[in-house]
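Notebook entry, structure prediction.
Reason for the run: the old model in the group folder had no record of what sequence produced it. Starting over properly, with the input documented here first.
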Amino acid sequence: MIPILLITPIAAALFSALARRTQQRAIEYAAVAAGAIELLVALAIAGTTLTGSVVFALPLFSVDALGAFALIFTTLVGFAAALHSVGYLRQEREKDIIGFRRIREYYTLFHLFFFAMFVAATTASPIIMWTAIEATTLATAFLISFYNKPSAIEAGWKHLIVNSVGLLLGFLGTLLFFNAAASAGDPHTFVTWDVLRVLSVSLDPALIKIAFIFCLVGYGTKVGLVPMHTWLPDAHSKAPAPISSLLSGVLLNMALIAVLRFRTITDSLVDPSFTQYLLIGFGLVSLIVAALIIFGQKNYKRMLAYSSIEHMGLMTIGFAVGGAATVAALFHMLYHALLKPILFFCAGNFFLKYSSTKTLKIGGALTLIPFSAIAFFAALLAVSGIPPSGIFFTKLSILSAGIDAFPFSMFLVMVALALILTGFLKSATSMLFSEPPQDLEKGEANGWTTVSIAFLGTLFIVLSIYVPLPLIALITNAAHLLQ
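New structure, fully documented this time:
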């Protein structure tokens, strides 16, 4: 199954790259078909891991429950993004903003991004995981600068430089883990996650502490933790909406999973409070900074970008607290991966209608594009944790688990969450309920740009009300791997 998962995006990328000008629809349908195949294969792999078993295929590739969980949210978002990309790019081409060459480039890089994500989720090697996540930096840099405007090119270069420097630190941390493993065991053994776990009791504690700090800062740059977050708001605001959804719903989560895998090795050797305080510190600062900026933000795509920083900070705190909060943080990761693409898809529909990402230039959205406006407002409330949203229960669980050991930190989290909700409502009411411009026609761009929202929205609603037992088992098994 793993070979199919890896071959599918490569085949789709080659088809897109070699397609002729008359084959735009073929490229689009190939992307949707590839997304569907990848989703089905990911579900099959996840089903195999429910009993706690590991799926092996090819040298250095294996999928445990945590990897299967990552594949689930990656393929769900990928399928929805493929659907949305069809309608979004068709509208951009109709306006003569882009041509066929750009569309071909978009889909080629789109599939290569997912190939890298699948490698990161399925590899048993820390160094291959680092390579895959670094590869996404190159693919997304071109997608962020997709429109070739000066601000977009600047955002692309900023994304490339900041993340490359950050991941270089992560690479150094990974090498330090490898060096410690070589000193503790056979230096000729290729180091995998399992090898690190087996050798963990024999590793040098001081060296492992330094290595984890490098990995946290390095991969934390990709996660968007403050103060390494500087690339993220620009990248999210300048990239096409489907790409913004991938950055927020997939890439940030995958980088956080890398941090967590290194954390389990570190905690088995040194006092777990070492990593716990580091994660809570970075998570809390990220949450507070995001809250303060969201409250006064005038660009709705940047507002959503800072919301992603907020949620990554909250998840980091949940994983740091541990226990029941780890399960809650994994559920939060899934819910956020479903909701944030909805918000970016709606933001993309606003941009198609109004040709602006400025909040003050969006007026009367509820009148002009009612489906996107209602979905946007509902998703904002859900991502803020308004019940019965699944995120309400995950936030409540994280706060409940951490209130005894970290009362002041949990109090700051609650204040930040309240401030964020206020900022969301302030922006949304202006965008949705003000008077619409007279020169714009009523109606959504096309069906493709709404079906993607409906797909993820329906899934989120269902999972907020009823969580299937297999999903509970998968997340519980993944949580056990992190403790």
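Summary: The beta strands are 55-56, 62-63.
The old model has been moved to the deprecated folder.
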